[in-house]
Design goal:
The chain has about 525 residues and is mostly helical. About 85% of the residues lie in helices and about 5% in strands.
Length: about 525
């Protein structure tokens, strides 16, 4: 009984296994028994499988399963083995069932006739006393039908007795067959357990004998399960090897990336320090530019003050030049007056000369008169003598005054000539100084414009330096952020490397676990 229970349990387990309809490359539908432990193909995730399912409209078949025959638990082989038993049972019950059906049909006809007669009597509704003839006829008819019904009932009873006898005989034969079947099934179960025992030691080359017993389905399912486990172990072994190799390569890449991230973090930190120093230099440059702007402003102010001073000096020089010109005019007028004095002195000299001549004549006359007096020509004229003396004295005074005026006039003329020459020299010097002052003013104007332009350029440089300093500070902040992100990335890469180490260890453990199975050479299934 335990063997029977194990058989039923095995059938139930096999029947309860999930089934999946799939379509092969030729378009033929096949029923495949899916293993609960079967997962996605190695190297592919559930998301990729889901994506492939939606992209192609049906689930992609694993190329490693190509050419493998799917297991059909209710296929043609099982039905062929169970067909003889079903045919024998059908032949044993066919004849009694046909006979019972015939007598049952006869009894049904009798009952229908009785129903028709009773219905006719009920419809006629005639009085029994008035319709004696009809009743007698009906009674005779009813008697005949009752005899026929009794005969049919007896025949039915005989048929039932014969059917019971046939059923008893078939039941006895069925029990004998069942006992023999149970014995054969127990032997088949023992054989199946003996054939399945190598699987417990990890021998995947074990094969079960497929016979005509009920364990044939279990044996066939066992063989198919062993094939699937064999394929699964091979797949797991190859996948674990591939995962281990990929984990080793990924671990090396992660370590290289971690070192590169560390180097990048150091370089970014160094660049951030450089940028910070540049920001400080830009700030100092901005301060120097501001100081230069202030100094340029002071230079511009000094140039403007110098321009104003030169303007005032130029105005003073213009006044001095005007005064020199006025003095020159006065000196020219004085020279003209001196010339007039000289002309008057010339007239005085002429008068003096004539006075001298007159005095000389008077003297001559006096001398002549004296001579006449000596010779007795007459007495000398005293008045004439005095007049001559006075004229001579006046002529002497006029001559002296004339000589003094002439000397004074020559001295004044020499002084005027020297003064005029000095004034001309002063005028030329003033003109040269005015030209130089105007040139200096123009130079100061140019210096002022250059100072203003320089101040504007310095202000622009200071503003741009301030903006660049802000950009450099922002760049420094960004470099700090990038440095933090790089360090975080390096930490994550190191974490991934550690996880890859764990994955490599898990793959090694998986390979060690799969190594306990012995694949061996698959043996052919034995059919009995």
């Amino acid at each position: 009984m335990s063997a029977k229970a194990d058989t039923v349990h095995a059938d139930t387990m096999v029947a309860d296994r999930p089934r999946a309809d799939s379509t092969d490359s030729d378009g033929n539908r096949t029923d495949m028994v899916r293993s609960d432990r079967a997962g996605p193909v190695a190297g592919r995730t559930d998301r990729e499988e889901h994506h492939d399912t939606h992209a192609t409209g049906r689930k992609r078949r694993d190329p490693r399963r190509a050419g493998r025959k799917p297991y059909d638990i209710h296929g043609a082989e099982t039905q062929a083995r169970l067909a003889p038993r079903q045919d024998a049972s059908a032949r044993g019950l066919a004849a009694p069932l046909v006979l019972a059906a015939f007598f049952g049909l006869a009894l049904l006809v009798c009952l229908v006739n009785l129903l028709i007669v009773s219905t006719a009597l009920r419809r006629q509704g005639l009085d029994l006393g008035a319709t004696a003839n009809v009743f007698a006829h009906n009674a005779e008819l009813a008697w005949r039908w009752s005899q026929l019904g009794i005969a049919a009932a007896l025949a039915t009873l005989v048929s039932l007795l014969w059917l019971w006898r046939c059923w008893s005989r078939n039941e006895h034969e069925r029990r004998l067959r069942k006992r023999r079947t149970e014995q054969s099934e127990q032997a088949a179960i023992v054989t199946l357990l003996d054939e399945m025992s190598p699987l417990a030691q990890g021998d995947l080359g074990a094969r079960a004998t497929v016979g005509n017993a009920r364990t044939a389905t279990v044996a066939d399912a066992f063989n198919h399960a062993v094939d699937e486990i064999r394929w699964l172990v091979s797949t797991i072994d190859s996948s674990a090897t591939a995962v281990s190799a990929s984990a080793s390569r990924s671990h090396g890449l992660a370590r290289s990336m971690s070192r590169a991230c560390n180097v990048q973090a150091r370089e970014i930190h160094r660049s951030s320090n450089y940028i910070t120093a540049m920001s400080g230099a830009m700030t100092e440059l901005a301060a120097l530019a501001a100081a230069s702007s202030r100094k340029s402003q002071r230079v511009t102010t000094a140039a403007q003050e110098g321009r104003r001073a030169l303007t005032r000096s130029l105005e003073s020089l213009d006044g001095a030049q005007d005064a020199a010109e006025d003095t020159l005019l006065l000196m020219n007028r004085l020279a003209e007056n001196t010339d007039s004095i000289e002309a008057r002195a010339e007239t005085v000299r002429e008068v003096t000369r004539r006075t001298d001549l007159l005095a000389l004549n008077s003297t001559i006359q006096v001398v002549a008169a004296s001579s006449q007096e000596e010779f007795g020509a007459g007495a000398p004229d005293d008045g004439l003598s005095r007049l001559a003396a006075e004229v001579q004295e006046l002529a002497s005074i006029l001559a002296t005054a004339t000589r003094e005026i002439d000397a004074l006039t020559r001295s004044i003329a020499d002084d005027i000539a020297a003064t005029v020459e000095a004034m001309r020299h002063t005028r030329s010097v003033l003109a040269t100084g005015t030209a130089d002052t105007e040139a200096a003013g123009r130079q100061l104007d140019g210096i002022g414009r250059l100072s203003q332009d320089l101040q504007q350029h310095v202000v622009d440089i200071a503003a741009r330096t301030v903006r660049q300093s802000g950009v450099v500070r922002k760049l420094s902040d960004n470099m700090s952020l990038i440095n933090d992100l790089t360090r975080q990335t390096a930490a994550e890469v190191r974490g991934n490397a550690d996880e890859l180490d764990e994955l490599h260890a898990l793959a090694s453990d998986l390979r060690a676990g799969v190594a306990e199975f012995r694949l061996g050479d698959p043996r052919e299934s034995k059919h009995v």
